[in-house]
Amino acid sequence: MSFAESITVEALEADPYPIYAELRRSAPVAFVPAVNLWFVTRWKDVELVAKSPDIFSAIVRVGVSPVERSFGKPTILTSDGEVHKDLRQGVDPKHRPRTVASYAGDLVRSIAEPYLDEIAKRGSAELMADYFEPVSTLSLARSLGLADIDMPTLRRWFYGLAQGAINFEKDPQRQGIADAIGAEVSDAVMPTLQKLARERDGSALSHMLHDGMPEGKTRSIDFLMPTIKVILLGGMQEPGHGAGSILVGLLTNPRQLRQVLDDPETFVPKAVDEGLRWVAPIGTQTRETTRAVEIGGATIPVGAPVAALVSSASRDESRFTDPDRFDINRDQGNHAAFGFGHHFCSGRFFAREQMCLAVRLLLERFPDLQLVPGKEPVFRGWEFRAPATLHVAFGATDK
To answer: Fewer CB within 10 Å, N side or C side of the chain?
Structure first.
């Protein structure tokens, strides 16, 4: 049995990084039966897969993609060509750098500060549930235009949708959870979409309906709904989970934390970028081969599902020195967490701004934050990875 054949889903969920390191050394492109995917692990090969849609297509056969199986099709992740271009025309306008700069600060601050006030009253917190995930879910929902959906519902949505998106092994229990949540999302979002189709505003959902369309026309709600579910999952999950990983990196490296506290303007963005490299919140870009192709010393057959592992690329030893180490002073180029090519994450500027603000506001309020002994964070996941919990305590609570 080869190393790739011995890989289990449980081992990937527990910690994929040693597995990826071994694959980069011995089999940089390999078929992993446990998840029915060809893993591509080295930076140059991951980038090639993501930037070669003629060979590695985002459009996959019916029933192959767990995203399409769970959310419907087409989605912004599983389309190419004119369909993908049309979806990006609606998604991109709310997430351009200048647009994000005009609204993200006030939005995120208004959501974060009440949660920080509650944490201050208690003297301790489990930051994933008490802060990072609420800020992430509510920021995304409010920017979309979903003003009336509460945080527990949103948080339940993204955990439920995730069960489908990572269900490469076609587990019926996971699929049942995702299907039920997907139906709930459709029912809950539909009235807002119907209203915005009649009366446009500045929300992201309004842009998706109207931007790039002829006067008096909108994109159909059925066409947009699968992509809305993708955005709800990735957009709610990535910033909160990324911020949690970033904070773990800082709290376990006191000298780097001190740099951030002393000069947040300079070092919070560096910490965010390093945290995204160190632990990518979303681990793969998934494709299907349009023909047999030789890459990384292996031949992938036509019609094969391929995982371009951006999480592994960001720890490639050929690009990053001592890649398993969290180091905000690293200066070795960009990480791969937002992907490559024309599927490069459309919400990257909004997500990054959220993470910068959430981490900075937290540390400004609680500069003596520390992990609770005996409750050290444990990371889980390979497609979606973050600390399962993040227990912290602090002393001074003055603003």
So the answer is: N
Report d(CA 162, CA 144) in Å as an integer: 19
Assign 358 to helix, strand or coil: helix
pTM, rounded to two decimals: 0.94
pLDDT computed for residue 385 by the predictor: 96
Q: In whole angstroms, how far apart are CA 127 and each of 3, 133, 136, 228, 382?
A: 37, 8, 12, 27, 21
Give the containing element (helix H, strand E) for 161. helix 151-165
Distance CA 255, CA 246 (A): 14
Buried b (16+ CB within 10 A) or exposed e, 326-359: bbbebeeeebbbbbbbebebbbbbbbbbbbbbbb
Average pLDDT of the chain?
95
- Give Cβ neighbours of residue 312 (< 8 Å, ≥ 6 apart): 16, 17, 20, 23, 24, 39, 41, 42, 46, 283
pLDDT reported for residue 396: 46
Phi, psi of 295 (to 5 degrees): -155, 135
Distance between CA atoms of 283 and 285, rounded to whole angstroms?
7
- Could you count the other beta carbons within 10 Å of the beta carbon of residue 196? 20
In this prediction, residue 236 carries a pLDDT of 83
Span 182-203, pLDDT tens digits: 999 999 999 999 999 999 999 9
Reading the block at residue 373, the tokens are: 């002994």
C-alpha distances out from residue 366 to 328, 354, 361, Å: 20, 18, 9
Query: What phi and psi values does residue 373 have, to the nearest 5 degrees?
Result: -55, 140
Structure tokens at 56: 């590695």
Q: Tell me, what's the pLDDT at 63? A: 74
What's the pLDDT at 397? 40
Closest among 286, 281, 284 to 348, alpha carbons compared:
281
Tally of CB atoms within 10 A around 27: 18
Question: Cα–Cα distance between 17 and 382 in angstroms, integer?
Answer: 9
Q: Provide the token pair at 268.
A: 């919070």
